[in-house]
Specification:
ATPase, alpha+beta, 6-stranded mixed β-sheet, RecF-like, ATPase_AAA_core
Length: about 375
């Protein structure tokens, strides 16, 4: 389980370190930095997929994604005694992302590309480090990258070897230096990171993929847009927790029963002579069933992150959704980004979630109600 997330220099997240729990809620006012924190987690997952640099380039490169304020905000500025002023940069341009957990951690540091780089929006990877345990150290580090040099520690002899000396600045050691022999630990961590799951594009509009006639095939993981909802529900019934599925549907829609057949989704409701298909469901009903299919996946990920799962849901569904999230968190770690006070209240009543409330001051996102976990960035 991930226990710490650290971000430095990304958008409004000048320097933020927060704790993560089995079920974590990220909340705050509009513009407080919730989406930036979500994107930062997703960028870490993109590293294991080999898409980090391209994703940042698509956001406009470091020039568009870096913290736009001064390196430091002094007490006098925060007290209103002096205006915010630009300062001479003391450290290098840097965007840093990292996390640690019960058994391993990872950090990456990106900087400006060289003047000769024909793709100026592509940031350059300067440093990467992966370690066992909560924090990096001489004994815990098993992979490190400095510019083009990558070193791996052999599992048996604990000796260091040079895996690469000229790794491209737009390639990560996570994707290019993991091999079953000397890079077995790196390989294992890469696969775990690739298994993280994100849902922020579950559509419920009239043209939503989930409303179309599906291809019924074995589907243990719901697609990011929910297109294979009917097949995912059928798979839960075949090899997953069908009892939990029935319970959460009945909890949200009393007297209802969810099934699927070769024609697609079928929601049986008390009083109706036939079940309703996906094309006939309200946005809120379809949204809730999409969340159920994602959260009750027979192949739960180590980490699942949901962005505003309450969208389109009636307030009466907040308590069933909170119960669904609590059930899912017993099978894997869950993080949600939300601004719904109704969902927050339902989760607080259950007592199963940790809360990160973000606030913005002088353009900088912080979590003033939390004690920041200890964190050390690998040096360039």
């Amino acid at each position: 389980m991930l226990t710490t997330l650290a971000i430095s220099g990304y958008r409004s997240l000048r320097d933020l370190t927060v704790p993560l729990d089995r079920l974590t809620i990220v909340t705050g006012a509009n513009g407080s930095g919730k989406t930036s924190l979500y994107r930062a987690l997703r960028l870490l997952a993109e590293t294991a997929q080999g898409r980090l640099v391209a994703t940042l380039a698509a956001e406009g490169g470091l020039a568009s994604t870096l913290w736009a304020g001064p390196e430091m905000i002094g007490r006098a500025v925060r007290a209103g005694l002096h205006p915010v002023q630009g300062t001479v940069r003391r450290g290098p341009v840097s965007l840093k992302l990292g996390f640690s957990g019960d058994d391993f951690g990872f950090a990456i540091d990106l900087g400006m590309p060289s003047a000769e780089n024909p793709f100026p929006h592509d940031p350059a990877i300067k440093v990467e480090a992966m370690w066992t345990g909560a924090s990096p150290g001489r004994a815990s580090l098993f992979a490190e990258r400095r510019n083009g040099l990558v070193r791996l520690r052999r599992a048996k002899s604990h000796e260091w070897r040079e895996a690469m000396t000229d790794l491209s600045p737009f390639d990560s050691m996570v994707t290019h230096c993991a091999d079953p022999q000397d890079g077995a630990e790196l390989l294992a961590m890469r696969e775990r990171m690739r298994n993280w799951r994100f849902y922020d594009a579950l559509r419920t509009d009239p043209d939503a993929p989930a409303r179309r006639r599906p291809v019924m095939t074995y589907t243990p993981v719901l697609a990011g847009d929910g297109a294979d909802l009917a097949a995912a529900i059928a798979t839960i019934r075949a090899i997953g927790d069908a009892e939990a599925l029935d319970a959460i549907v009945a909890r949200a829609f009393p007297g209802s029963y969810l099934a699927s057949d070769p024609g697609g989704l079928a929601l049986h409701q008390h009083g109706l002579l036939r079940p309703l298909g996906a094309a006939e469901l309200s946005d809120g009903t379809l949204r809730y069933l999409l969340l159920a299919a994602a959260l009750l996946s027979p192949r739960p990920p180590e980490l699942m992150v949901l962005n505003e799962p309450e969208a389109s849901l009636h307030p009466s569904l907040m308590e069933p959704l909170a119960e669904l999230l609590a059930v899912a968190s017993r099978r894997g770690q869950i993080a949600i980004v939300t601004h719904s006070e109704a969902l927050l209240a339902a989760l607080r009543t259950g007592g199963a979630a940790a809360e990160i409330r973000l606030e913005k001051s002088f353009g900088e996102t912080g979590a003033p109600d939390l004690d920041a976990p200890r964190w050390t960035w690998p040096k360039r």
